[in-house]
């Protein structure tokens, strides 16, 4: 059987597709049919005329990291001369700039610092929450939480409950890459697939929401990608805590892994993965277009392949830009791309609540540095 239409009909009739059917779609070359079905499901799940975006800032509080990821050009080993840890004053300065530009929150992540215990993170969050009580702190990642666990000896749920009390609002889905240990052990020494999932389970159990991500093209195959989607869907069935799913392709230029990989995902591969994610993840509300890694034009195209959100204007970003992604945008440009795709742009916060503010004369600048 080479016809994907029965699988697409199953989804469009409200059915749930299997992992085998998911793989069949990913192996199909009929991108147009898959994209049309994903667009239809996206329009049913979210307001059909609206595409959302967020104004926030990605602050990488330290580049010190005690694990080695061959796909990362950002991290620095402890003791190296170009390591840094941002002071509270520097972080507050960046938050002040973000608020002045209409921002509603900060996405804050860093390397896995060998000396930062739970109290360091609590002090950081409580200080920021006290100074900016209405500003959303969307911070850390499962590998960072696992690192706190290794240092403090506390279980994930206790750590997350304490961080929530200190001011944490939600958590990004970073560090997932591909949730398959066969792949992970070849490219990284960070937490395992199960540990990533267990951290997210704890995040949701203490009443926080999070996103989920996938970075593909790191030596993985279709089977690994399907398994990743299955694990996300299974956990979402259990907890309901994921707000959105964001897939993107490996950015290879300045990385050790990039020098070994001879073939990388194409634009068609990206659009297909995005569309199939929308069809398979029937229990996840939002699918985000990763324009930062794919470029604005392909990010705009993704809005017709199942994505309902354009993510952040990225006032600051350091990790994927270090790996070679040099795309930038400002709010005016992002809104233009959304309008030209046939949608109404709508600013949101990290939990997908609409934000109403005057943007007609906005001059928000967002160089990726």
Question: What are the SSEs and their pairings?
Answer:
Layout: H1 5-12, H2 19-27, H3 31-45, E1 50-54, E2 56-60, H4 88-100, E3 105-109, H5 118-131, E4 136-139, H6 142-152, H7 156-166, E5 170-171, H8 181-187, H9 193-205, E6 209-216, H10 222-239, E7 242-249, H11 267-280, E8 286-287, H12 291-294, H13 296-301, E9 309-312, H14 319-322, H15 331-340, E10 344-348
Parallel strand pairs: 1-9, 1-10, 2-3, 3-4, 5-6, 6-7, 7-8
Second CATH tier, the architecture: Alpha-Beta Barrel
List segments where confidence is low: pLDDT < 50 over at least 5 consecutive residues. 317-328, 360-369
Largest sheet: 4 strands, parallel
What's the CATH class, please? Alpha Beta
Approximate shape: globular
Structural class: alpha/beta
The N- to C-terminal Cα distance equals 49 Å
Tell me what portion of residues adopts beta-strand conformation: 5-15%
| Tally of structural domains | 1
How does this structure look, described?
There is one protein chain. The protein has a single domain, classed as TIM Barrel. It has 15 helices and ten strands. A four-stranded parallel β-sheet has the order 5-6-7-8. Strands 9-1-10 form a three-stranded parallel β-sheet, with helices on one face. The chain has a three-stranded parallel β-sheet with strand order 2-3-4, covered by helices on one side. The chain is globular. The longest helix is centred in the middle third of the chain and has 18 residues, at 222-239. By secondary structure, it is α/β, with parallel strands linked by helices. The termini are far apart. Helix 2 (19-27) packs across helix 10.
